[in-house]
Design a protein that fits this description.
Two copies of one chain form a homodimer.
Chain A (H helix, E strand, L loop, with lengths): L2 E5 L2 H4 L8 E6 L8 H4 L7 H15 E11 L3 E2 L2 E2 L2 H12 L2 E10 L15 E8 L13 E2 L4 H13 L5 H13 L4 E2 L4 E4 L15 H10 L5 E4 L6 H8 L3 E6 L2 H13 L9
Parallel strand pairs in A: 1-12, 2-3, 2-11, 6-10, 11-12
Antiparallel strand pairs in A: 3-7, 4-5, 6-7, 8-9
The structure holds a DNA duplex.
DNA sequence: GTTCCGCATGAATCGATAG
DNA sequence: ACTATCGATTCATGCGGAA
């Protein structure tokens, strides 16, 4: 397996990737007005114009059978939900993207706080875009026990986390599936119950590893290529590598690149670096 | 308390209501291509144009301090989520509405099925619109014991999931809340876990009564006026009456009006009718 | 009166068939 | 070709009947 961590702005670095080469793009770009240090703190009103060129490049590098998962949530501006996400979806469809589905990430432990006019925000959008209607989807890779799937699934995941078998490289989840065969399995829904990762070390990435891992299992097979143009501390790359997928990550902050490489080497798997 | 059930098309009947008279509008209009008998089965491409005049009238009758809760979900058309909901939000903002918040209704028992390209749809949008930023909100009326909405760790996840959200706040919230004050109460989030009502008697109301009841408690006080321009079998009116609010319901199907009146009388509360 | 099991029932979606 | 109708798929829920 190969992991390429690229230091730089994805607005430039994406041009270096060949067309039709990526099986899955899963990313959580900086939300409007956040991460001001890295991308200049994109204003909500400028967000669509800022992201559209990136979306066009992502569409170029994605395979026709590939999928793009965009984790995003609109900011509250002047007491209102801003509409840049809605406008972004409409504009990306004009670029040729298909807006196939909208998954909901229900954050069970959402950010605390109290405001007079709204409750805590406990969900984010996971927008699924595709280039064609005939995209790859391995539904059996994410099947869950009947009845309720959130809890047991998390238990299973933590179990596999705890047990660091060498056999996981290659066909890791194949064994999980075979372990489930014979029991009563159900397909999941488009609502994901995951807790944010709290108490993390240096970065504020609340992106739990189970999130990219779920979509990697669903939309790729072992040996496929995963891309995260806003890699951050490398959560997507770690998930991809653990599942036996190749990964390309682009990150503009040098300290995050270092952190990502450290996280990757810590899982004791081959890692190739390039700038 | 007063309950007015109006037989007719809300596109006409809303004109008979005075301006700035309603505290809360909560409704679930027919989705695109469904309920063909009642409103002719609005095509997805025509949905925005069909709803916008209604939205304008709703804005007229709503008090400046009032709230409009719109339950809606986009249909899949040709393998894609249709964008009429996104466009409706943008157009309603051009009408002057504020898009304050988007709640998520997580349907625990969603419709079954299996498809090669998508999972079961387990959520719907609950869009909150307002006329002004200073709307009424009684957050204490919907507080819940800790652990129901927030806080539970992954261990508790399966336990709380298996429990069938009996809505402990259910009825008579005022006294209950006052009794709970001093104990551990938490404010809810913007994600609602409710099951649709299946196996009901005569109607196919998937709108669970807890849904309008929750918003009625949150956005109105006793004696206020609630409006549902697509009353259906009267779920909103029953919830309003049980909570001591006045209600106006408009429904185009005569059999639904009869059903709504029957449901209202069955709860043994005063009921005034008018056409 | 409890608990347990069986069964009908959905704001669904796709693919095939028919006009 | 494009649209309308129909069958197949699938699972949480709440009811009724049975133990």
């Amino acid at each position: 397996m190969e992991s390429r961590i690229i230091l730089g702005d994805c607005r430039e670095k994406l041009a270096g990737l060949p067309a039709d080469s990526i099986d899955l793009i899963v990313t959580s770009p900086p939300y409007a007005d956040s991460r001001a240090r890295t991308y200049g703190g994109i204003r909500p009103d400028d967000y669509v114009a800022w992201f559209l060129p990136i979306a066009a490049e992502l569409r170029r590098v994605l395979k026709p059978s590939g999928t793009f998962i965009l984790n995003i949530k609109e900011k509250v501006v002047a007491g209102e939900r801003h509409v840049y996400v809605l406008e972004l979806i409409l504009e990306m469809r004009r670029q040729g993207w298909l807006w196939t589905e909208e998954f909901i990430w229900h954050k069970r432990n959402c950010y605390p706080g109290k405001w007079p006019n709204r409750f805590r925000d406990a969900w984010e959008r996971l927008l699924q875009f595709n280039k064609t209607k005939s995209f790859t989807m391995n539904q059996e890779a994410v099947m869950v026990p009947m009845g309720d799937w959130a809890g047991p699934r998390l238990k299973n995941l933590s179990a596999t986390d705890r047990r660091r078998d060498p056999s996981r490289v290659g066909s890791g989840f194949g064994k999980n599936v075979s372990r489930w065969v014979g029991r009563e399995l159900a397909y999941p829904t488009n609502v994901l119950h995951l807790a944010t990762e709290t108490g993390n070390r240096n970065h504020s990435a609340v992106f739990p590893k189970e999130l990219p891992a779920w979509f990697i299992r669903l939309f790729t097979r072992a040996g496929d290529w995963v891309l995260d143009p806003f890699l951050g501390s490398g959560t997507t790359a770690v998930a991809a590598l653990e599942l036996g997928r190749n990964c390309i990550g682009i990150e503009v902050l040098e300290e995050n690149v270092a952190l990502a490489k450290q996280n990757l080497t810590s899982i004791q798997l081959p890692l190739l670096e390039s700038k």
